[in-house]
Amino acid sequence: MIAITAATLFTPLERIEQPLLLVEDGSVVEVTSRARRETPTGSRVLDFSDGILAPGYIDIHIHGGAGRDVMDASPEALPEVERQLASHGVSSYFPTTVTAPLDATLSALARLADAIEAPESESSGLRARPLGIHLEGPFISPCRRGVHPPADLLTPSLVAFERFWDAARGHIRVMTIAPELPGAIEVIKEAAKRGVSVSLGHSDASLDAARAGMAAGGRHATHTFNAMRPLGHRDPGILGEVLTDPRLSADIIADGVHVDPLIVELFLKAKGPEAAVLITDATAATGMPDGRYHLGSLEVEVKDGRCTSGGNLAGSVLTLDVAVRNVMKFAQWDLQNAVRIATLNPARVVRMNNSQNQIGSLKPGGRADILVLSPAGEVRRTIIGGAGI
Ligand SMILES: [Zn+2]
User: CB of 7 within 8 A of CB of 50?
Assistant: First the structure.
């Protein structure tokens, strides 16, 4: 038994002072405080003094890092991405595909399914775990495609969806789709039926088309404001729906580059601590010097914190720990709420904060995915499934 203590703990819904967190065999056994419970005799005590304990971060939209893309065929690619994620506090992630030629997408999905099904190995360092796949393309709008290659976009169809589903062996947990495309409603219904979190995005939808996407099973929105029809005060469009419908969670790239800090603040006011989610949309260039990298089959260039392709923004070099601190800076949120939108909220999007899958909060029976943060939100220690203690 390991007994972990610090100044404060965020479950993240609850705040516990002088916490006592008991961990055994990679799982959380008890979450309590030193005032309520004695440290069990014989347990190993870890005291993080003025630190804050929180659940591990969860990134549901990430393409790569450390010079590697999650669609790379190299067996070294995912472990390198995963080690970098762990160093920034991410314990679980959802590798995200970009639109690519069909064969490249199908083989990437099969490799990602292999990684998700692989037993955890302790031999290659502390690594974030892939828990499911985010299929970002190809069912996206040609006029809001961002840098997704136009030649490889597909009109949504059940036949195409089935091919992706089979290649991924059912591990697609999030799918970004533009609801206004012909065939989209049918695909949204089928994906939602299979437990996929359908995320509206890369979309030029009118308000009515966005609402039809919601009625069919849409529950989330992808990088709000980016690759989305802009908000018009007499033509609210998809953004009007995303910002006002409380049933819809939504994510944002809070790097201050993709969306102005003031608009991040506006977004957080609209969605609140209940429905806002932080993502990185990070590319291979994350954590690397300026230069040229790959995003799926695209070449991207990084200079001064901007990742571009042909002059357009092409993913980010953001890490989730920085996004959490940016939320405190841009919107004056406290650390507890900022942590919530990088832990519990993304876990709910992928439906993994329940009795079968316990990620995103610290509670008995859950995975021991634990962060030790400084009061300013810097990651001091990442513990994944009990490893890293
Ligand atoms: Zn992306």
Answer: yes
Tell me how far the alpha carbon of residue 98 lies from the centroid of ligand 1, in angstroms. Answer: 7
Q: How far is the CA of 174 from the centre of ligand 1 (A)?
A: 12
> Model confidence over 222-259: pLDDT tens digits?
999 999 999 999 999 999 999 999 999 999 999 999 99
In the residue annotation, 281 being an active-site residue is answered as yes
Question: Which of 59, 152, 204, 281 is labelled catalytic?
Answer: 281
pTM, entire model: 0.97
Q: How far is the CA of 253 from the centre of ligand 1 (A)?
A: 10
286 alpha carbon to ligand 1 midpoint, in Å? Answer: 13
DSSP 312-381: EE-SB---HHHHHHHHHHHH---HHHHHHTTTHHHHHHTT-BSSS-B-SS--TTSB--EEEE-TT--EEE
Sign for the CA dihedral angle at 343, 319, 117, 296 comes to: positive
pLDDT attached to residue 354 = 85
pLDDT digits (tens, 9 = 90+) for 283-338: 999 999 999 998 888 889 999 888 998 888 888 999 999 999 999 999 999 999 99
Contact between 34 and 20 (Cβ < 8 Å): yes
